Amino acid sequence: MQDRKKIIGNIRNKSGYIIDMDGVIYHGNKVLPGAREFVDWLVAEKKNFLFLTNASDKTPKELQEKLMRLGIKVDKTVFYTSALATAMLLHSQKPKGSAFIVGEAGLINALYNVGYTMNNIDPDYVIFGGTSSYNYDSIERAVNLVLRGAKLIGTNPDVTGPIENGIAPATKALISPIEMATGKKAYFIGKPNPLMMRNALKKIQCTRENSIIIGDRMDTDIIAGIESEIDTLLVLSGITRENEIGDFPYRPKYVLNGVSDLVLKEKQ
Predict the structure, then answer these.
(1) 125, HSE (Cβ side, Cα atoms, 13 Å)
(2) Of these residues, 20, 124, 158, 221, which one is catalytic?
(3) 122: annotated active-site residue
């Protein structure tokens, strides 16, 4: 299997790694095979790496604690979420603005940390992130705020996300009733928005030529890499199956079963 060895060698020779989390490192609350060994390898080889996730519900500290519970110890600075990217963009667009937020602590804290205030009367933005506290009242309020001039923002364009017993509706699915009722289209900030990728490259301080994005979704991770001219590795440990790759008009540069394939050599 010379081709497989060459693929693994090419990936291991990269300097920078931009890594999705759910479906790559863990699935729900279960660590995926080889994930611990892969992160240990990244640290031992002094690779520059960043966990880049479209999930907006958790803070970097909460993500750090989750990985620690799964047996993976990393610094909280290696996490970059769509909530942080959203806060960064809105701060640059309208410093110290206000927002009506449908989301969890990760999104609320990110906006609070850049000086945003919560406002359900006349906000500058209506912002949707991943949440389990989604209800008709929040939809109704969001619709009327947008009709009165608030700009509609989604932290990411994911329609679904993996959970332990299947899939769950994600941000784009949650925000669609507001788009339909108002006739206004949301602006989505997470992958595959190139903003996320440029910020990730800055954080790992690597060129795109020496970096690779590792993810389990063709519609966010892989297209994000392609549009940013960063090599892509699709792992089949998450939401995309091998027979689904052909459904898309683009292909990942590499395909492996999981990150365990990258550390298999270490075990031999």
Answers:
(1) 28
(2) 20
(3) no
